[in-house]
Design brief:
The chain has 13 helices and 13 strands. The protein is α/β, with parallel strands linked by helices. Strand 12, helix 10 and strand 13 form a beta-alpha-beta unit. It folds into 2 domains: about 210 residues, 3-Layer(aba) Sandwich (Rossmann fold); about 150 residues, Rossmann fold, CATH 3.40.50. A 7-stranded parallel beta sheet has the order 3-2-1-4-5-6-7, with helices on both faces. Helix content is about 40%, strand content about 15%.
């Protein structure tokens, strides 16, 4: 099949890295893939053609910059940037579908610009719209009100335009249906692809103090304060939290036992330095996410502490594993779990108990499911 993949991020940010994995795996399984993205993608390979679309209207660059500056002053510059990318991407998509045949147009990635591109393009080519996040995001990440209603209208347009829909997990599908208040028939569950299909056994860490590693940003509903208080209670001199983040907020957590580092491309070299891998979800009754980092954590022989509401997708995924613990985001639960986990030698634990979950998120299995549904819908 010839597939046109539209992804706002590609090869960067969590959603764009997953889009890259899926595009490359689609190509590896015999599909022809062209990607339209906003990312300045620099990798060179023959399997996937990547076209970068800029929101800047080249014919009127000066006017665009003046207008953009004006809207930034008003506080809505990002909105203009994203609308510009949608407009330019629609032009590029129209050009591509006139030039060559495509069997499917596949839209994914956050924010939802990629999905909105096809809302404005008329075509007989079937469109697969993937919901990386619910739209609007659940309440912990977005306040209710006019903006939520505006995003819900976007979701309705995306659903109406789709020939086929996919969702990141079952919880997300159920939550989106409850928001739309109507059934969705043509859909399937499409998990985010992890970075590998194999369990990796890394050397035993040789840290002077018990080191907790967290990959990603701490923002919004992700509240680290109970964790920090638990670490202080257990003795900050004997524990260390290392946060690998693209946008470290050094003023957010100022404790001496917390260290910020930049993002490293080789996540396995980072996880090798950990005694414990930390997953921190947002505090919400409607937690519908499985963080992208958790899929990579599962690939290595390191214990996982998942701070997430009971009944969340992550808590259900990790339920029953001896190599992971799930706790609520409160001081008592976290301190008890940390104290127990740092006194257990996890080197001799059977990490093969994760094999079924690893296979579920493997790029090959995720893409097989996508191709299967594309083939049936054709």
């Amino acid at each position: 099949m010839n597939i046109l993949l539209i992804s706002y991020f590609y090869g960067e940010e969590a959603s764009g890295i997953i889009s890259e994995r899926i595009a490359c795996e689609l190509a590896a399984q015999g599909q022809s893939v062209i990607v339209v993205t906003s990312s300045n993608y620099s990798k060179k390979h023959d399997v996937v053609k990547v076209i970068r679309v800029s929101p800047v209207i080249k014919e009127s660059l000066f006017v665009y910059r003046v207008v953009r500056k004006f809207f930034y002053i008003l506080g809505c510059g990002r909105y203009i940037w994203h609308k510009g990318w949608q407009y330019q991407s629609r032009k590029e998509v129209r050009r591509l579908i006139k030039k060559q045949h495509f069997d499917w147009i596949y839209c994914r990635s956050t924010p939802f610009d990629a999905n909105m591109v096809m809302v404005g393009v008329d075509t007989v080519i079937p469109v697969l719209q993937h919901f990386t996040d619910p739209l609007p995001p659940e309440g912990a990440y977005l306040p209710k009100g006019a903006s939520a209603k505006w995003l819900l209208r976007k979701a309705e347009k995306i659903v109406n335009k789709a020939s086929l829909l996919s969702f990141g997990n079952e919880f997300m599908y159920s939550y989106q249906v409850s928001l739309l208040n109507k059934p969705i028939k043509n859909f399937f569950i499409s998990y985010d692809a992890s970075s590998s299909s194999e369990l990796h056994f890394l050397p035993k860490p040789s840290n002077e103090v018990y080191t907790i590693v967290y990959l990603g940003n701490i923002y919004g509903a992700r509240n680290p304060r109970p964790l920090i208080e638990a670490m202080e209670y257990l003795g900050g001199d004997h524990l260390k939290l290392v946060i690998y983040s693209k946008r470290p907020r050094t003023g957010y957590i100022q404790e001496t036992f917390v260290e910020y580092k930049g993002v490293e491309k080789d996540v396995f070299s980072v996880m090798e330095k950990a005694d414990l891998l930390l997953d921190l979800d947002g505090d919400s009754l409607n937690q519908v996410y499985i963080s992208s980092k958790l899929k990579d954590y599962l690939l290595v022989n390191r214990p996982i502490l998942s701070i997430t509401p009971q009944g969340s997708p992550s808590s259900m995924l990790l339920s029953g594993l001896k190599t992971a613990r799930v706790v609520n985001n409160d001081f008592k639960s976290i301190s008890a779990a940390l104290n127990a986990m740092r006194n257990i030698d996890y080197q001799d634990v059977d990490y093969y108990e994760r094999k079924k979950i690893i296979n579920m998120f493997s790029p090959s299995e995720v893409v097989k499911e996508i191709i299967k549904h594309m083939t049936v819908e054709r």
